[in-house]
From TrEMBL, chain A:
This protein's UniProt keywords: Lipid metabolism
InterPro entries from the UniProt entry: ClpP/crotonase-like_dom_sf, Enoyl-CoA_hydra/iso
Catalytic reaction equation(s): a (3Z)-enoyl-CoA = a 4-saturated (2E)-enoyl-CoA; a (3E)-enoyl-CoA = a 4-saturated (2E)-enoyl-CoA
Family statement drawn from the similarity comment of this UniProt entry: Belongs to the enoyl-CoA hydratase/isomerase family.
One GO cellular component term noted in the UniProt record for this chain: peroxisome
Higher taxonomy: Eukaryota, Viridiplantae, Streptophyta, Embryophyta, Tracheophyta
Domain of life according to the entry: Eukaryota
UniProt signal peptide: none
A GO molecular function held by the record: delta(3)-delta(2)-enoyl-CoA isomerase activity
GO annotation terms (biological process): fatty acid beta-oxidation
Name the record gives this protein: Delta(3)-Delta(2)-enoyl-CoA isomerase
Organism per entry: Eleusine coracana subsp. coracana
EC number annotated for this UniProt entry: 5.3.3.8
Automatic annotation (TrEMBL), chain B:
Gene (name only): gb27055
Gene3D superfamilies noted in UniProt: 2-enoyl-CoA Hydratase, Chain A, domain 1 (3.90.226.10)
Pathway involvement of the protein, from the record: Lipid metabolism; fatty acid beta-oxidation
Top-rank taxon, per record: Eukaryota
Protein species of origin: Eleusine coracana subsp. coracana
Protein name per its UniProtKB record: Delta(3)-Delta(2)-enoyl-CoA isomerase
Length: 242, 240
């Protein structure tokens, strides 16, 4: 379902197979486990690592497993609840994170991509799409928090959430949602790894990096269940380094 | 205001100009912060305020060298003094303009952003949030300055998470700085003073300016208001 490999200072998480990478309980658990292993490995690896998340096939991820959930609200809510701690793991990850959007990213899949620091997307095919308004589902509160944290231009936020606009990479880049556009999936993955290597080379202390990330959007962190460190704890950390 | 060798004040027309003196980094330690606070308090009767600096730096941030010499509980006085200065600026009944005449890093960058308008030297100097590179976490009120004054998610990320060094032209394009000014330090100051004069000429009711400013940045005001503003006297030197 997913694999994790280390290439030098870069961890590469691949959503495997040419399917929709629907976020089922199994896939979410699998990704969480991989992300946890990365967080652990980074502690021993020392400063200067990065994560790239990439998908095989035509999809990055088509969102939560609505097929399995069917008409069951409990099942759907269960999946929504299961994705939240994965989003939290990513927002708290002690290293730069890059989503290599190698195919469609819809709903929960789009959210997954947004939970990364950077987004690189193929320009030839694939769209970013918050499908909830079209399907007739409200957005879970933590989805909204992350959307508001990452898409700050009011028109862009409106287009994504209220218009259900399907964004190709070039449009997404203009709206500030995607950082770079590449010709195809191979180039997208390569560019993402190249960026990851550049960011890893900055040798940022992972704990500090994650702390600064969380201070950029504390409301999204609260909404997703992360408790930010107190000022006191931050000061102690600073003093210990003097 | 008592003379000191840290900053000067002068009136140019209706504009109260504070200049951080000397060719150094204008590190924001308790002494300089106290001097700036006194200088800000001395602006009574002026129509607008400009904060500028001599030399290559606007300000390179907190005085970490000083922080190394004092125990943890006294380091807080530097942070508190900065918080108080931000409160003073938010509560000032006249428009404020930062003349970023050189490099502005970390607290120096935040200080510039705490003004109503920012003019910056185009040919030299950059804005730089050095915390990620320096391995320093950002405390809440400080992050709030950035959150309120740098609303765009991508700019915030590039500045804070990537430690981009942003020259004036880019800072203008990305919405952090109002005007990039060609020329030298004096040209930047003159341009900032010119803008300040225009703002002063609007003849705005000072109390209204303060209330509107506090309403525009409510989260930031709530996090600094207990430290300064509202005529709180400048921080005295800590008891030894």
């Amino acid at each position: 379902m997913c694999t994790m490999e280390q290439r030098g200072r870069v961890f590469v998480l691949t959503l495997t197979g040419d399917d929709e990478h629907r976020l089922s309980h199994a896939l979410i658990a699998s990704i969480r486990s991989s992300v946890a292993s990365v967080a652990a490995a980074s502690a021993s690896a020392g400063p200067g690592t990065a994560l790239v998340t990439v998908g095989e096939g035509r999809f990055f991820s088509n969102g939560l497993d609505n097929i399995w959930a069917g008409t069951s609200r409990e099942r759907l809510q269960g999946l929504v609840d299961e994705l939240r701690p994965l989003a939290a793991d990513l927002l708290a990850l002690p290293m730069p994170t890059i989503a290599a959007i190698t195919g469609h990213a819809a709903a929960g899949g789009f959210l997954l991509a947004l939970c990364h620091d950077y987004r690189i997307m193929r320009g030839d095919r694939g769209v970013l799409y918050m499908s909830e308004v079209d399907i007739g589902l409200p957005l879970p509160p933590y989805f909204v928090s992350v959307l508001r944290a990452k898409i700050t231009a009011a028109n862009a936020l409106r287009d994504v959430t209220l218009r259900g606009r399907k964004l190709k990479a070039a449009e997404a880049k203009e709206m500030g949602i995607v950082d770079a556009v590449c010709p195809g999936p191979a180039e997208t993955a390569a560019e993402a790894i190249k960026l990851a290597e550049q960011l890893a080379a900055r040798k940022w202390d992972g704990n500090v990096y994650a702390s600064i990330r969380m201070s950029i959007f504390p409301e999204a962190c609260r909404s997703i269940g992360i408790v930010e460190e107190s000022d006191e704890e931050k000061r102690k950390h600073f003093a210990s380094r003097l | 205001m008592e003379p000191n060798n840290l900053c000067t004040v002068e009136r140019r027309g209706r504009v109260h100009v504070i200049t951080l003196t000397g060719a150094g980094e204008h590190r924001l330690g308790p002494a300089l912060l106290g001097a700036i606070r006194s200088a800000v308090a001395a602006s009574a009767g002026a129509g607008a305020l400009v904060l500028a600096a001599e030399g290559k730096f606007f300000s390179n941030g907190f005085d970490q060298a000083w922080a190394r010499t004092v125990p943890l509980h006294l380091q807080a006085t530097m942070e508190d003094a900065f918080r108080a200065l931000v409160a003073d600026l938010l509560a000032l009944p006249v428009p404020t303009v930062a003349a970023v005449t050189g490099h502005a890093a970390a607290a120096g960058c935040a200080l510039a952003l705490a003004h109503d308008a920012v003019f910056m030297r185009a040919s030299r100097g950059f804005l730089y949030m050095s915390e990620a590179d320096a391995g320093i976490k950002i405390i809440d009120f400080f992050a709030e300055i950035m959150r309120e004054k740098v609303p765009d998610a991508v700019v915030r990320r590039d500045l804070l998470l990537r430690g981009d060094r942003m020259p004036a032209a880019e800072a203008v394009r990305r919405g952090m700085v109002d005007v990039a000014v060609e020329g030298g330090v004096d040209d930047v100051v003159n341009a900032a003073v010119g803008e300040a004069e225009k703002l002063a000429a609007r003849g705005w009711d000072g109390d209204v300016v303060v209330e509107i400013r506090k309403a525009a940045w409510p989260k930031l005001w709530s996090k600094v208001k207990d430290y300064g503003g509202a005529g709180t006297p400048a921080v005295a030197t800590p008891r030894l």
